Amino acid sequence: MTMQVRLFASFRQDVGAGRVEVTLEDSPRVRDLLAALRAQYPALGPGLASAMVAVNLEYVGPDYRLHEDDEVAIIPPVSGGGGA
Amino acid sequence: VSFKIVDGPIDVAALNAEVLTDYDGAICTFQGVARRYSRGREVVHLEYEAYPEMAERKLEEIGEELRVKFGVERVAIHHRTGVLEIGEASVAIAVASPHRKEAFAACQYAIDRLKQVVPIWKKEVWSNGEQWIGWEGTPPAEAPAAAGDRR
Description:
The structure holds 2 protein chains of 2 kinds. Chain A contains 2 helices and 5 strands; from the N terminus they run E-H-E-H-E-E-E. Chain A has helices at about 10-15, 30-40, and strands at about 1-5, 20-25, 50-55, 60, 70-75. The relative contact order of chain A is 0.26. By secondary structure, chain B is α+β, with helices and mostly antiparallel strands. Chain B is about 30% helix and about 40% strand. Chain B is built from 4 helices and 9 strands. The interface of A and B includes residues 6, 30 and 83 of A.
């Protein structure tokens, strides 16, 4: 199956797109998605290991099972809040 | 009361007015500000990017945490995105409560939590380069393993 994945910040900039398509075996888990992204988008680089994954606006773990219509985003280390 | 990602300057007076009621004797307002000097480098400007739908939801969750932990009900958090010049506020948090103690505590908790869980990213732009800044050392307390796998 094919999933749309949203990218932000360093990942968006490294890949040159805020949204990519990734091809996966059926009923994948988050860990499978990360492996596929690593293979299909080498530009994401080693930073992917320290990223989190959000599905339908919630953080999920590596065993979480994905569905085709899920909204998936790769969340690099966050840094909001200003200089404080 | 309102939890928003905004792309222009934050109106702190409006934020304060939004949370204040006749029950309140204190408003604690925090602003995070773009700093010129960071990690030994001179910053020209900052750029903030958000995952807006998720960021607003996470800000609302922080508001709910403040209600449970500190008993404060009147909270507003606005975070800005886009290019910020030095001295401009990237975030403002306003907490109103009958007494100052809860307002101070809630405000501090809110900014600490925001930096852990809200999907917003900062890029420092220097005269000779740029870098996205990430969490230093500690990933969010709300770790993937704890939050995931419920469906």
